[in-house]
């Protein structure tokens, strides 16, 4: 089982445009230079959910058959711009019966830009926990 894994990803203009199309989020702060500057950014910023989704790929290295993501939280510390190269690291914080807890960080030129946590749970433990709660045990 994996304990730590890292990947590098580039947030391209194409990814930003595709995400806007798929999500319906055409907020011009993500697509237009002048609109981004109006909000004091040097250029359009990537969608936070795009970054979150691309970062999620790293969790697959920790996933085993019969698991699902139960929680996923991310804090966006600094803006991510088109063509930024983001170095993502996922570390296993702990593992207990049926669950794996990951800490995720993303850096741009050694500067922290995102951090978050993700929990993976075995479907059998989720069903057991829900059944236990419902039965009052």
Question: How would you characterize the overall build of this protein?
Answer:
The protein has a single domain, classed as Thiol Ester Dehydrase, Chain A, CATH 3.10.129. It has 137 residues and is an alpha+beta fold. It has a five-stranded antiparallel β-sheet with strand order 1-3-4-5-2. It is elongated. The longest helix is centred in the C-terminal third of the chain and has 13 residues, at 123-135. The protein is built from four helices and five strands.
Helix percent band: 25-40%
| CATH architecture term | Roll
Average pLDDT: 89
Q: Which superfamily, in CATH terms, is the homologous superfamily?
A: Hotdog Thioesterase
Shape: elongated
- SSE string, helices as H and strands as E: EHHHEEEEH
Largest sheet, described in full?
5 strands, antiparallel
Helix- and strand-based class? alpha+beta
CATH fold descriptor: Thiol Ester Dehydrase, Chain A
Which parts are unreliable, with pLDDT below 50 for 5 consecutive residues or more?
Answer: none
Number of E strands: 5
Quote the distance from N terminus to C terminus.
32 Å
Q: Give the strand order, joined by hyphens, for the main sheet.
A: 1-3-4-5-2
Pfam families: MaoC_dehydratas
Protein name: MaoC-like domain-containing protein
Domain MaoC-like: 6-95
Please summarize what this structure is:
This protein has 137 residues and is of the alpha+beta class.
What brief labels describe this structure?
MaoC-like_dom; 137 residues; elongated; alpha+beta; HotDog_dom_sf; five-stranded antiparallel beta sheet; Thiol Ester Dehydrase, Chain A
């Amino acid at each position: 089982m994996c304990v730590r894994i890292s990947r590098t990803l580039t947030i391209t203009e194409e990814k930003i445009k595709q995400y806007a199309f798929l999500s319906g989020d055409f907020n011009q702060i993500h697509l237009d230079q002048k609109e981004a500057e109006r909000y004091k950014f040097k250029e359009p910023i990537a969608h936070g959910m795009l970054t979150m989704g691309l970062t999620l790929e790293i969790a697959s290295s920790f996933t085993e058959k019969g698991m699902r993501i139960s929680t996923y939280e991310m804090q966006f510390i600094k803006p991510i711009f088109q063509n930024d190269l983001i170095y993502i690291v996922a570390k296993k914080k702990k593992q207990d019966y049926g669950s794996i807890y990951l800490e995720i960080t993303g850096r741009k030129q050694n500067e922290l830009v995102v951090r978050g946590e993700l929990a993976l749970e075995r479907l059998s433990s989720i069903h057991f926990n829900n059944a236990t709660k419902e039965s009052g045990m």
